[in-house]
Design brief:
This protein has one domain. It has about 210 residues and is an all-alpha fold. It is about 50% helix and about 0% strand. It binds zinc ion (ZN).
């Protein structure tokens, strides 16, 4: 699906397709790279919110959240259904915005690095985390997203930037000694072994408590 996405990105640039081409200086570096990077980050924030609040999406995404030990391996702990969804959303974002191949490669590289760092077991010193956290999703902030109880699970949806969480009231900070990974509905640690039972994963009412 990534090949399709890259092909579409090349096509949008060639055809001047997408919202970006409604803006002045659409082919200038400021709009083409900086603004598009920020726009794609915002759309990824919306995607993550949808994965939590649309019940059928959450059934896939909870596989990622049910990890009881968050470390870099959690980055790739994903139900195949979510992988498909993520790529479908990305295709929609490329067509909507008119992201070019260069910006898509740049964005995906930055996102991969940010995701790996966010899931590392390393915590930044509190003061440094607070300064960086004004703009970026630090491991400290993403760990709060993996805390087992609400409302933390429905906070810090950001991918690279934390500004969307601050703007839309979904920002939270949680000290390390108060952070417990997992989901209070799935603490048995066996969910990762089951591929096709996502349709029966109930107990979704917790999503609406935040
Ligand atoms: Zn999540």
């Amino acid at each position: 699906m990534m090949t399709v996405c890259l092909w579409l990105a090349a096509w949008t640039a060639k055809s001047s397709w997408g919202l970006v081409y409604l803006l002045p200086h659409a082919r200038g570096p400021l709009v083409k790279y900086l603004l598009m990077f920020i726009a794609l980050d915002f759309l990824d924030y919306l995607y993550h919110v949808a994965m939590h609040f649309v019940p059928i999406f959450w059934r896939f995404h909870l596989v990622h959240h049910s990890d009881l030990v968050v470390d870099v391996s959690t980055t790739v702990r994903e139900h195949p259904g979510e992988t498909v969804l993520r790529n479908v959303f990305l295709i929609c974002w490329v067509l909507l915005c008119g992201a070019s191949t260069e910006i898509l490669i740049m964005r995906q590289t930055a996102e991969t690095v940010a995701n790996l760092l966010a899931h590392t077991s390393l915590r930044l010193p509190a003061r440094l985390a607070r300064v960086l956290g004004w703009l970026f999703i630090t491991p400290n902030l993403h760990h709060a997203h993996h805390h087992f109880q609400m409302p933390s699970t429905n906070r810090n949806f950001g991918d690279v930037f934390s500004i969307w969480d601050r703007l839309f009231g979904t920002f939270i900070e949680l000290p390390r000694d108060e952070t417990i990974f997992g989901l209070d509905t799935h603490m048995e640690g066996t969910i990762d072994a089951r591929l096709l039972d996502f349709v029966s994963r109930g107990r979704l009412s917790r999503l609406w408590l935040a």
